[in-house]
Specification:
Blueprint: H1 2-17, H2 26-32, E1 47-51, H3 53-62, E2 70-74, H4 89-98, E3 102-106, E4 109-112, E5 118-121, E6 124-129, E7 136-142, E8 145-152, E9 154-158, H5 166-169, E10 181-187, E11 197-200, E12 205-209, E13 216-220, E14 223-228, E15 233-238, E16 243-247, H6 251-269
Parallel strand pairs: 1-2
Antiparallel strand pairs: 3-16, 4-5, 4-15, 6-9, 6-13, 7-8, 7-12, 9-10, 10-11, 12-15, 13-14
């Protein structure tokens, strides 16, 4: 936290010295004795998020304009969505000021929960039991066709971007972000023949809780956004809104480079 705050202060000082108009999120600004603006009220051409993937995902959820381009600075254990290391920050800021960058647009999912409530996911929508060590009885329907009915700990519905996160840990495949698709990964299904499923992004997916079963939680990018009781269902489909990330490298090589580093980090973490 202290390191991220120091980088924020340095970035603010550098950008303002170059004549850029800067706004700082209110809570962060209060810790740096700077004027601040609530994240929901920010109106900027680009946003710098200093932290891990969780910081970036939480920021995207609260932005008034969710399509604001985001530059992720990698501070944290896991930062697959980030673009630059802290030591590259000043060079990145110079490129940002010059407009010397590309914007990568990635697909999001929209989970429609109940009574018009919906929530968008950059990584995944997860359905899990609200009672630890209990399984859920549910069905998954894709395009009107049942693809799973039975018992499991839950299910992950991921974007191509999210295929490198929770879904990957649950033995799902990696999907290149140039493809627009939804990945369905069941969590510890009782039916051992069940396997991950990749479906076109044009399809509509439904998750329905069946009796007898405890209620299920709906978790969007790590945040609980709702519950489903027996007989209830949630619809998941491609969101009309995309997430936009600032990139300084060619898109495909950068993706596979980030993937390689992620796999290497996970491999080294297993040694502990």
């Amino acid at each position: 936290m202290a390191y991220a705050l120091e980088l924020t202060k340095q970035s603010y000082s550098y950008l303002t010295s170059k004549g850029a108009l800067c706004q700082v999120e209110a809570e962060t600004a209060s810790k740096l004795c700077l004027p601040g603006v609530q994240l929901e009220e920010l109106s900027v051409d680009a946003l710098i998020a200093i932290g891990g993937d969780g910081t970036i995902l939480r920021t995207l959820k609260r932005l008034a304009n969710p399509e604001t381009p985001i530059l992720g600075v990698k501070v944290g254990k896991i930062c697959f969505l980030g673009e630059v290391e802290p030591e590259e920050l000043q060079l990145a800021l110079d490129k940002l000021l010059r407009g010397d960058y590309a914007v990568e647009e990635v697909m999001k999912l929209r989970a429609s929960i109940a009574e018009g409530k919906s929530s968008d996911a950059v990584n995944e929508v997860v359905f899990v039991t609200s009672q630890p060590a209990k399984v859920i009885q549910f069905e998954v329907i894709v395009g009107g066709e049942e693809v799973f009915r039975g018992l499991a700990d839950g299910a992950i519905i991921a974007t191509p971007t999210g295929s490198t996160g929770y879904a990957l840990s649950a033995h799902g495949p990696v999907i290149d972000p140039e493809l627009e698709a939804m990945l369905v990964v069941l969590l510890n299904p009782l039916n051992l023949s069940s396997r991950p499923l990749v479906v076109p992004a044009s399809e509509t997916l439904k998750f329905k809780v069946l009796a007898p079963s405890p209620e299920a939680l709906v978790v969007v990018d790590g945040e609980v956004v709702g519950k489903i009781n027996v007989g209830g269902e949630v619809e998941v489909k491609k969101s009309p809104v995309k997430a936009r990330f600032i990139r300084f490298h060619a898109r495909k090589p950068a993706f596979y480079e980030r993937l390689r580093k992620l796999v290497e980090w996970r491999a080294s973490a297993k040694k502990w």
